[in-house]
């Protein structure tokens, strides 16, 4: 293997540095920011999500932000800063770097992901079944 997953994540973090956990918490509720939970539906149901976060599983994210895609979601392209997160900041690092490469310059991801968020005692919203 020429590059490990850890190598790819490290490179993504150079391209789009993660947002410190406390800085992310300060942005919660800001009108200019959209938190985006890129974990899978089973993760949302099992552990909850950051209150108000838009849920966009990692597998569809690029298609949902691309206006040329038949899966385009305008709510991810409304001018707000996108703050992505996954469980531990590996998937979100790769996703943030990909969106940046697609031309979205106001994108970042939460250092430590949802696991760090929840461990810090920050607000969590339960998802109904």
Automatic annotation (TrEMBL):
CDD domains: Polysulfide_ST (cd01447). Residues 29-126 form the Rhodanese domain. Pfam families: Rhodanese. PROSITE patterns: RHODANESE_3. InterPro entries: Rhodanese-like_dom (IPR001763), Rhodanese-like_dom_sf (IPR036873), Thiosulfate_ST/Rhodanese-like (IPR052367). PANTHER family: RHODANESE-LIKE DOMAIN-CONTAINING PROTEIN 15, CHLOROPLASTIC (PTHR45431:SF3). This is Rhodanese-like domain-containing protein. The lineage of its organism: Bacteria, Bacillati, Actinomycetota, Actinomycetes, Mycobacteriales.
């Amino acid at each position: 293997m020429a590059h490990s997953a850890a190598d790819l994540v490290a490179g993504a973090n150079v391209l789009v540095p993660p947002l410190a956990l406390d800085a992310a918490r300060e942005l919660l509720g800001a009108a200019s920011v959209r938190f985006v939970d890129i974990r899978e539906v089973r993760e949302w149901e099992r552990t909850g999500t950051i209150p108000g976060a838009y849920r966009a599983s990692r597998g569809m994210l690029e298609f949902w932000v691309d206006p040329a895609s038949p899966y385009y979601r305008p709510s991810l392209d409304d001018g707000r800063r996108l703050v992505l997160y996954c469980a531990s900041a590996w998937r979100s690092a790769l996703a943030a770097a990909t969106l940046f490469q697609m031309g979205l310059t106001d994108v970042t991801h939460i250092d430590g992901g949802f696991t760090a968020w929840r461990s810090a005692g920050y607000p969590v919203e339960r998802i109904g079944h």
